[in-house]
Amino acid sequence: MDKNLFRYIWRNTRRQQIWILFIVLLSMPTYFMSFDLPKQIVNGPIQGQGFETPGATATFFKIDFDVPSWISSSGSLVLFEGIQLNRLQMLMALSGLFLALVIINGLFKFYINTYKGRLGERMLRRIRYELVDRVLRFPPGQFKRVKAPEVATMIKDEVEPLGGFIGDAFVQPALLGGQAITALVFIIVQNFWLGMLAAATVAVQGFIIPKLRRRLIQLGRERQLTARELAGRVGEIVDGIAAIHTNDTSNYERADIGSRLGRIFKIRYDIYQWKFFVKFLNNFIAQVTPFLFYAIGGYLALQGRMDVGQLVAVIAAYKDLPSPIKDLIDWDQQRVDVQVKYTQVVEQFTVSDLIEPTLQELSKDPLPQLSGNLAVNNLSAVDESGAKLVDKATLTLAPGERLAIAGAAGGGGDTLAEAVVGLVRPENGRITLEGTDIAELPEAITGRRLAYVSSDAHLMQGSFGDNLIYGLKHAPLVPAHYEGADAKHREWEISEGRAAGNPTFDIRDDWIDYASAGVSNAEELKAAMQRVLDIAGLLQDVVDLGLRTTIDPASYPAIAEGIERARKALRAELESEGIADFVISFDPSTYNPEATVAENLIFGAVQEGLSKADKEATDSYIRSVIEKFGLQDRLYRMGYEIARTVVDLFRDLPPDHPFFEQLTFMPAEDIPRFEGLIQRYKDKPSAEVAPQDRDRIIALSFAYVEPRHRFGLLDDELRKRIVEARPEFRSGLPSTLQSKIAFYDPKEFNRASNLLNNVLFGRIAYERADSADRILAIVRTVLEEQGLGGEVFQIGLNFNVGSAGKRLTVAQRQKLHLARALLKRPDFMIFNRPLSALDLKAQERTIERVLASFDGNGYRPGIMWVVGHASLARFFDRVVVFDGPTPAETGSYDELMGRKGLLTALST
Amino acid sequence: MLLNDEVELLRRLPLFAGVAPAKLKLLAFTSDRIKFDAGKELFKQGDAGDAAYVVLSGNADVLVKTEAGEIKVATVNPSELVGDIAILCDVPRTATVRAATPLLTLRIKKENFLKLLSDFPEMTVEIMRVLATRLSRTTAELSDARSQLAHARRVH
Fold first, then answer.
1. Which residues from chain A sit within 8 angstroms of residue B22, using beta carbons?
2. Which CATH class, in words, describes the domain spanning B3-144?
3. d(CA A463, CA A687)
4. Chain A: residue nearest B5 by CA?
5. What is the mean pLDDT of chain B?
6. Taking a C-beta distance cutoff of 8 angstroms, is the pair A887, A881 a contact?
């Protein structure tokens, strides 16, 4: 990228800039004519020049050119003789011409502005793309120095004003300069001295104002830097929120942000002060000139040395003059501003050893399997301070070989693994793949034939499944098919993308490299995904994620259709295991003791995440049904009893006591309020209770579950009456709440409950809470047997992992990374303490599963595994033990253990 | 069985005898009532301890793994506490407890139990007394077993 903004703009938009300049020039004659016309109208038809005699006519629209006499003897070439018009006709014709000129000028302006806008936006797109492209090509060390939010602000905000400017970069000075010169020349033609006066004012403006603005440039640069740093700090606060909370440094952060904002405020306020001062001065100079015109021009007109028409035209022309001049000065201001921004941004993105674009070239061809060795020769690498991270390491990994690297955490092995995949650049020595230095190999080879899994558990925002197949998306393999308007839009996308120097690959193509996963279509890929997730120990997690998802049954017809079958199968299975009473089913005609009072009345599920208004509407509808069935007295007494017991139990506890977790009736801070209520209404019938308080107390009864709370507040009669109210509740539900509540129906899928609750169609008994895992396992089996396993798996794959994958546990994320590496079937796999979040036993089992998965199916990658604990090295063919940055021992596990050296020491 | 009955039962435990009924009610409220079928394990020897159990009804066997297989070392009867050692001193379960009959228990979570101890120190003293009693009983049993062993050796 050019250091100079104008050179960058010129290089990329030369042709468009010339074209728009041409159009600007083309617009000049009509612009000039529109100045001259008012004078003609006033002097001619209005004041009567040329119409001195009655019935006199004048020539309108005669088109002729002065030409040399060898073409025409009269010295002029007449193309159109013109029409003879009388005074009134002339007035109308000239006025009409004026209107036509206004329209033509307007159209020119419209075209020019649109063209400029498009030009600017295209360039903005190009700049942003180039910046991101650079981020993708930054050398690995660069990321230790840059802050993500700062890079994001630069790409998003700081280059934004460039878009508005680029279209104006050459056109604006040409257009405005042209206009200003036209107006000036016109004034000079009318009256030389008035013209000189106008020119002098312009010169003063053009000289002084930019000088004053120099300070503004300086301030602008500071504003940009401080704002960028602010973005970086805010990002740090978000990322480091745990450290802030655990160190009680939130006020330190507040102070830091406050002082930064203070500095930004000061800079911005200074900018305002200067800006408006300069504006004031500018306006003053501009306004002094008309004063001189009126005074001097008027004097000349009075003396008869200038006609009134001339004076009017001069003043009209001058009125147009300040605006181009002012705009020109504004343009210059903007130029300086964006030049500063551009330079600042480009500096940040100018890095000496960017990855060569050729190494990242798109490659659609399948790559041959690697048959040579991965060799590390005399490798050394240092950190920023120059300390050795790995020192003189030499080792070879043959295809299919399994090598363990042991050593203390942060030792040479970790860095060696990073260097092998290019995340650390060697200071000395070479890493070669089939004899070629990996630094010279395209990423198409290192990124596909090698896999790397570290303990870093970052995921891309998106679905679980997308993250799993992320390692297969190297190139758009099967083009997306478009028809009609879509095809047109795609063509537009391609041509616009080209015009802005963006890539034309289509994100909607099928990017999945099925062949690399050893499958041929999406269905087989799903099976492969299942297999690798199983190896990584993550399959059950995915199924459970699916089970806990609330789905739209319309999107999964098989599930909606099979739910009744699945419920029956579950019931049968529970019965055959003799644990039928572990899950209490929903039955339209009986009270479910394990569900709350409200759920028993509604006999349905309320959609999650209701708005406050919807919640209140639901509550008030529930109350209306309660009243209708005369339940309010009973439920009031029940609520009162709950309040009394809860206040009794929790009164003396501080509000942050962990026991409050068990309290489902009310938040801890409500205890004092209820304490007041029970005292006020002690021994009073519910009729004497204020309606608001009564509602509040009745609402307590809604959450009551007898087996859980054991207050003994329900009897058969109340249960019966609640069940009897169900049909009424259902039929009378207001239409506004219809979509918020899904009623239980043994035959229908319930859209407000998650999949697990849909299959259970009941509640796990509180006294059997210990068996939840057992029941979950039965649900999984039942769904599998009913042929719905694939659907549930798919729903799990669609689970959104959240920002950076944070909706999954670290262990799950690490396993997902492992599964992703397995899925792409590379020739060499580099594992760098990939399962650090798992305990040793789980790590052992996972390593065993991973290694066993390559047995006897013809695919056997070379594996380099930096193990989290030395004892894990026993699963590998060969072990290299690092002592700090240096490799100290090499040999088989048994051999090294026999030597009783470093490995033995590390293993215990 | 209701909360109030559970409190009555807890009060009969030596461990909780000195604790105010209101606090016992709180403990009962924050604990889960869990049912086990005969033959089901409350916990296994070697597991991490996360809860203690008060038997409300039924019996359970306390089993210890030995080289000769599993042997039963004690029976837990209604209104007895089991599993408290593992949550008091953070060691894995020292024995397996299995329901001998259908068993109804009150499960007291480790955090809740410890929180209650720190809130009401009088309970701690009570616990100490119970543990000391158990220790002296165990010591007596041990010396008894030793003397039997010595006697058996002499006979052979």
1. 648-649
2. mainly beta
3. 55
4. A710
5. 85
6. yes
Check: CB of residue B107 under 8 Å from CB of residue B34.
Answer: yes
Q: Which of B1, B3, B34 is facing A770, going by the closest CB pair?
A: B34
User: What residue numbers bound the domain in which A431 lies?
Assistant: 370-449+826-908
Digit-coded pLDDT (tens) for A18-40: 998 898 888 878 877 877 788 77
Q: CA angle at residue A374 from A368 to A377, to 5 degrees?
A: 145
pLDDT of residue A776: 92
Asked if A579 contacts A771 with a C-beta cutoff of 8 angstroms, the reply is: yes
Q: Do B22 and A648 touch (CB under 8 A)?
A: yes
pLDDT recorded at residue A881: 93
Residue B47 has what pLDDT? Answer: 85
pLDDT in tens, A572-587: 999 998 888 899 999 9
Selected for mutation to probe chain B from A646, A664, A770, A774 (highest B CB count within 10 Å) is A770
Per the CB < 8 A criterion, the answer to whether A112 and A171 are in contact is yes
pLDDT value at residue A70? 67
Residue A66 inside a domain? The answer is no
- Is B34 close to A662, i.e. CB distance below 8 A? no
A658 closest CB neighbour out of B1, B4, B111 = B111
A334 and A238 in a single domain? The answer is yes
Hey, what's the torsion of the CAs at A426, A428, A431, A436, to 10 degrees?
Answer: 110
* pLDDT for res A288: 79
Shared domain check, A737 and A691:
yes
Q: Where a domain ends, among A724, A743, A762? A: A743
Cα-based distances in Å from A76 to A38, A60, A82, A466, A716: 26, 17, 15, 78, 116
The angle that helices A322-349 and A308-320 make with each other, rounded to 10 degrees, is: 20
Given a cut of 70, whether residue A73 has pLDDT beyond it is: no
Q: Does A648 touch chain B (CB under 8 A)?
A: yes
CATH code of residue A343: 1.20.1560.10
Residue A826 pLDDT exceeds 70: yes
Say yes or no: A757 and A720 in one domain: no
Give the distance between the most distant pair of CA atoms in chain A.
130
Please report, for chain B, the start and end positions of each structural domain, with discontinuous segments joined by +: 3-144
Does A25 share its domain with A103?
yes
> Predicted confidence band at A873 (pLDDT cuts at 50, 70, 90)?
very high
- Render pLDDT for A696-735 as a digit per residue (tens, 0 to 9): 899 899 999 998 888 889 999 999 999 999 999 999 999 8
At residue A44 the predicted structure's pLDDT band, cuts being 50, 70 and 90, is confident
Residue A611 and residue A739 in one domain: yes
Burial class (CB in 10 A: 0-12, 13-18, 19+), A137: middle
CA distance A9 to A6: 5
What is the residue type of A331?
W
> Partners of A514 in the beta sheet?
none
pLDDT value, residue A294? 81
The residues, ordered by sequence, that sit 6+ positions from A275 with a Cβ below 8 Å of its Cβ are A216
Q: How many other C-beta atoms can be found within 10 angstroms of the C-beta atom of residue B146?
A: 10
Round to whole Å and give the CA distance between B14 and B129. Answer: 9
Residues A726 and A752 in one domain: no
Q: Which contacts (CB < 8 Å, 24+ apart) does range B129-137 have?
A: B129/B14, B130/B14, B130/B15, B131/B88
- Mean pLDDT, residues A255-276 taken together: 92
Q: How many whole angstroms separate alpha carbon B145 and alpha carbon B137? A: 12
Residue with tokens 């030049």: A339
Q: What is the mean pLDDT of residues A29-52?
A: 77
Per-residue pLDDT of A129-179, as tens digits, reads 999 999 999 988 888 888 888 899 889 888 888 888 888 888 788 778 877
Structure tokens at A54: 């009655």
Task: Report how many Cβ contacts below 8 Å link chain A to chain B.
Answer: 48
Domain count, chain A: 4
Find residues 694-753 of chain A whose CB sits inside 8 Å of chain B: 707, 709-712
- If asked whether residues A776 and A730 sit together in one domain, one would say no
